[in-house]
Amino acid sequence: MQKYMKCLLAVAALFVSYAGQAQQMDGLVADGPALYAEYCAKCHGKNGRSNTFIGLLTFSQNLTNAAWQAETLDADIYAAIAGGRRMMPSYADKLSVVELQALVDVVRDLQR
Ligand code: HEC
Predict the structure, then answer these.
(1) What are the pLDDT tens digits along the chain (112 aa)?
(2) Where are the chain's structural domains?
C-alpha cells in the first residue's frame, strides 16, 4: 500500500512539474501566421497588400512593397507592431515579445 502511495505521489509530482512547465512555455512559442491572420489580416490583408476595406479606410501600409521592405529595419517593424502606427493599434499589451517577433518574421516573409 505504501509503495502504491509513493508511486502515486511521484506521478502527481511529475504531472505538477510538467503542468508548470507547460504554463511557462505559454507565449514562448508563437504561431506567427496564425497571429497575423487573427490580428493583422483585417487591415493588411492575407497577402499583406492592405487591399481590404478597413485597410483602404485606414491607409494601411502595403507590407509587400519592395522599396518599403528594403528601407525598413526589423526594429522599425517591431516598434510599429508593439507601439502602433497612426490608425494601427498597438499590440505590446496583448502579445508577448516572442509573438511580436514572430509577427516581424511574417511581415518579412510577405515580400517573397
Ligand atoms: C486597424 C488596421 C490595422 C491593423 C489591425 C494592423 N495594422 Fe499595421 N498598419 C496600419 C496603418 C494605418 C499603418 C500605418 C501606415 C502609415 O504609416 O502610413 C500600419 C503600418 C504597419 C507597418 C509599417 C510600419 C512602418 O514602419 O512603416 C507594419 C510593419 C504593420 N503595420 C504591421 C502590422 C501587423 C503585424 C499587424 C498585426 C499585429 C498590424 N499591422 C495590424 C493599420 C493596421
Answers:
(1) 677 666 666 666 655 555 555 444 556 789 999 999 999 999 999 999 999 999 999 999 999 999 999 999 999 999 999 999 999 999 999 999 999 999 999 999 998 6
(2) 1-26, 31-109
Nearest CA residue ID for atom 12, ligand 1: 60
CA distance 79 to 63: 15
Its CATH class, for the domain covering 31-109, is mainly alpha
Q: Is 81 in the pocket of ligand 1 (CB under 6 A)?
A: yes
32 in Cβ contact with 26 (< 8 Å): no
Evaluate: CB of 107 within 6 angstroms of ligand 1.
Answer: yes
Which protein residue's CA is at the shortest distance from atom 7 of ligand 1?
Answer: 88
| Grid cell digits, residue 106 | 511574417
- Phi then psi for residue 88, to 5 deg, are -90, 130
pTM over 0.85: no
Closest residue by CA, ligand 1 atom 20 = 61
Q: Is 52 in the pocket of ligand 1 (CB under 6 A)?
A: no
